[in-house]
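Consortium newsletter contribution from the modelling node. Members have asked for a concrete example of what our holo predictions look like. Here is one, prepared for the flavin-adenine dinucleotide complex that several groups have been discussing at recent meetings.
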Amino acid sequence: MANLANRVTRPYINITIQCGRVPCRWLRVAPLQARLRLGAALHCALSRYRVPPYRQLTHYDSNHSYISIRNMETFPKINFDDTAIAFERKNNRDLKETAWLFGMMNRPWLVNLGSKMTLLALQLHLPIQGIIKRTIFKQFCGGTTLDECQTAIQQLAQYQTKTVLDYGVEAKENEADFQATVQENIKAIRFAGKNGNVPIVSVKVTGFTRFALLEKVTSRQPLNAAEQTEWEQVTQRLDSICMEAADHHVAIFVDAEESWIQDAIDDLAMLMMERYNKQKPVIYNTFQLYRHDRLAYLKASFAIAQEKNFILGAKMVRGAYMEKERERAQQMGYPSPIQPNKEATDRDYNAAVQFCIDNYERIAACVASHNQYSTQLQADAIVRLGLPTNHPHLTFCQLYGMGDNLTFNLAKAGFYVSKYMPYGAVKDVVPYLIRRAQENSSVNGDVGRELKMVRSELARRK
Ligand SMILES: Cc1cc2nc3c(=O)[nH]c(=O)nc-3n(C[C@H](O)[C@H](O)[C@H](O)COP(=O)(O)OP(=O)(O)OC[C@H]3O[C@@H](n4cnc5c(N)ncnc54)[C@H](O)[C@@H]3O)c2cc1C
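And here is the predicted structure:
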């Protein structure tokens, strides 16, 4: 009996052979002696045929149990400027519409005016939802319902790209809305569980909590009895979402929001990771590296994860609320939590990516970015370490409607990449759409990058 148990639990090791763009071939062999002998035999065979140097048994990963042999010299460097791959799924008409939209968003005055007018028009119940849906919504959202997202999810899957579903509702303030958001998140998890192309659902805590309560928890002021009960309810709501996710083998991204409510969100995310990340990453917290304290917080979170023996889920973003953060800090007279400049943000972001790579066996990291350097940093490390390109602890994600040159070139090279796809009623996703428009209207922002790519592909197709 003891022997049988030993035999069953003996670790298996996969051997990966990867040459150029040829996909990984996995061989599961056992026992250890045979595996090592096979590795050595493969090495000899490959050397005999004068294939350029292979790294023999480059890596043994105790967690995932594999050894990989990869031809480092011929693994192609990804060309993120390959617009033919980036926009393969778009026809000329789609591309022209995208170029027009990014061209409009390139004008900061138009974005500022348009954002205010849109919010006012929605408040006055003016019929503008149709226009929004046909333009900016179509670019950045998957649909108004889960069913409507099916087409976009399938289309991404055709290009080896997964989907992270995000019910786009945020900043809700009443009990009925909170309940509805939790139910919608659970519905999305069940939908994802049945759909192999949606491994992750993203949640915003402000979708099912009062903002003022999060602010009070973050300020560390004592809660009164009613608030204490309310906070327990919030914890239960997130727990019910996380439990559902664990049951359906779906992961959860907990989005990061404004710094003055973030400690409360972090506390909840850490608690859920401690509960659900013992065997594999189910919950990911989000680290905004535009904050000067977040690299240290990532390291501190990892120390806690090690101490409490769970896998840290770390989705890394630069951060989407920079102007708002700086304005509030200035108005209220406290030091800004934001880095002094873009270089400092980039430095900490890349250091965070490197920290996760260095600890990838116990950190499941997602580079959630449109920044080519940061993306390349992780892709190169995966290749250098001889890990499978689709390693589940070293993944990539871009927003739906942006960064297609990164997403589809990564996917083509076999990396684990997803698109973050918001969905929901048009009026509910307007704050998200306004953030995307503002992000794309900044002088050094994404519009140059996106518009340049789209225009260059249109020119190439002529
Ligand atoms: C999959 C995904 C999920 C996301 N989830 C979240 C989330 O949960 N919470 C959130 O806040 N954001 C989130 N974002 C948005 C993300 O923060 C923005 O996309 C990001 O700000 C753009 O940065 P980038 O990494 O793509 O790179 P870049 O385009 O290279 O960097 C732009 C960013 O750098 C920072 N920056 C710019 N100028 C300065 C300056 N002068 N000083 C300091 N910093 C500066 C800002 O954060 C700016 O947005 C998510 C993005 C993706 C792709």
